[in-house]
Design a protein that fits this description.
Shape of chain B: flat
Helix content of chain A: over 70%
Number of strands of chain A: 0
Largest interface: A-B, 53 and 54 residues
Structural class of chain B: mainly alpha
Strand content of chain B: under 5%
Largest sheet of chain B: none
Helix content of chain B: over 70%
Order of helices and strands of chain B: HHHHH
Shape of chain A: elongated
Number of domains of chain A: 1
Number of helices of chain A: 8
CATH superfamily of chain A: Cytochrome c oxidase, subunit III, four-helix bundle
Radius of gyration of chain A: 21 Å
Structural class of chain A: mainly alpha
Distance between the termini of chain B: 58 Å
Oligomer: heterodimer
Chain lengths: 214, 146
């Protein structure tokens, strides 16, 4: 630590880097990745507080005589959404490996396309679930519980939508310009984002669906 | 994440691929168990909830380790610090929110849930109806202020 500190002036990024010895912070891509970690963690806090709000709304008073989690949620839908998202995180891993080991760009595009398709399957399942809930009268303004549900779960869906748009942009960039250094850097951040969304989903299926049906 | 430096590219690729597949298999197992428990039913509520929470937390660690590639190595130490610090902040805010609001509900409602009040009011004993009266008074009090 002290040895490394003499190599480079300490405190270049106070608060961001805890020492100057980390190789991945010396290049621009590494710094951008560290910055993206900070974004994801602030996003995590936002999700966490939506989870906390949802948790406080799981009492009978907050159902306001409206539908309860047991009446609303179904295991098969949640299971399929989970399967789609979890598989998409693996296929994104394959895309990352294809980039890291300099596979042909067709392979990278193929894995990204499969990831995107699985993301679309997830969003399709989620939208049809919301449509079913709306048809049953389970709208956000029905009860505090439903307000918090429609705050939390579609927030995750909006993130997946944003990630999918980002994924399309990256596929266009790769198709047109190949796998350049900036594409590698952007894909590394998108990979973090995509895997992060799957971690948030663990919380959603555990707390909202399984917790609600247990 | 990164393979040991003495590996050839092909070996390093297999090493990394194995990492993703290991993470995926663990994640599938940790997902299927709680889903199966809830789908099958028949177990006590506390057992099911406890299993969901524990396996969910383990699965988060699995994802962070195998997909985000944050482990205990010195190279990833600062990412780990950021995650742990965020988790601490999150725990304080989320647990604090739930604690305070549960406490508030307890004080406001005198321990009686309004959602269940109308169902209990017919058959409740004298001490119970006393509490409900209390809860109803509180509610009307709140309504008058608005």
């Amino acid at each position: 630590m002290s040895h490394a500190a003499t190599m480079e002036p300490a405190g270049q990024n106070p608060g961001l880097t805890f020492g100057a010895e980390h190789a991945h912070d010396h290049d621009h891509a590494g710094k951008a990745l560290s910055g993206f970690w900070l974004f994801m963690m602030s996003d995590l806090i936002i999700f966490g507080l939506f989870f906390a709000t949802y948790g406080t709304m799981l009492v009978p008073m907050s159902f306001a005589g409206g539908p309860t989690p047991k009446e609303l949620f179904e295991i098969p839908g949640a299971a399929m959404e989970t399967a789609a998202l979890l598989t998409s995180t693996l296929t994104f891993g394959f895309a990352s490996l294809a980039v890291k080991y300099n596979f042909a760009k067709g392979k990278v595009l193929g894995w990204l396309a499969i990831t995107l398709a699985l993301g679309m399957v997830f969003l399709g399942l989620e939208i049809s679930e919301f449509a079913r809930m709306f048809a049953e009268g389970a709208v956000p303004q029905r009860s505090g519980f439903l307000s918090s549900f429609f705050g939390l779960v579609p927030l995750h869906g909006a993130h997946v939508t944003a990630g999918s748009i980002w994924l399309i942009m990256m596929m266009v960039q790769i198709a047109r310009g190949g796998i350049t250094d900036s594409v590698r850097s952007r894909l590394a951040r998108l990979a973090l984002f995509w895997h992060f969304l799957d971690i948030i989903w663990i919380g959603i299926f555990s707390v909202v669906y399984l917790g609600g049906l247990a | 994440m990164s393979a040991p430096h003495n590996l050839s590219p092909a070996e390093a690729y297999r090493h990394d691929l194995k990492g993703y597949l290991t993470g995926f298999v663990l994640a599938v197992v940790l997902t299927v168990i709680p889903f199966a428990m809830v789908a099958k039913g028949g177990m006590s509520f506390n057992t099911v909830i406890g299993t969901i929470v524990v396996l969910g937390l383990i699965q988060v660690v699995v994802h962070v380790r195998y997909f985000l590639h944050v482990d205990l190595s010195p190279e990833r130490r600062e990412d780990l610090y950021i995650i742990l610090f965020s988790a601490l902040l999150l725990f304080i805010m989320a647990a604090g929110t739930i604690w305070i609001l549960a406490n508030l509900q307890d004080r406001m409602m005198g321990g009686v849930d309004m959602g269940t009040m109308h169902m209990e009011s017919g058959s409740a004993g004298s001490s119970m109806s006393g509490m409900q009266m209390n809860g109803t008074t509180m509610k009307m009090d709140g309504a008058a202020k608005n």
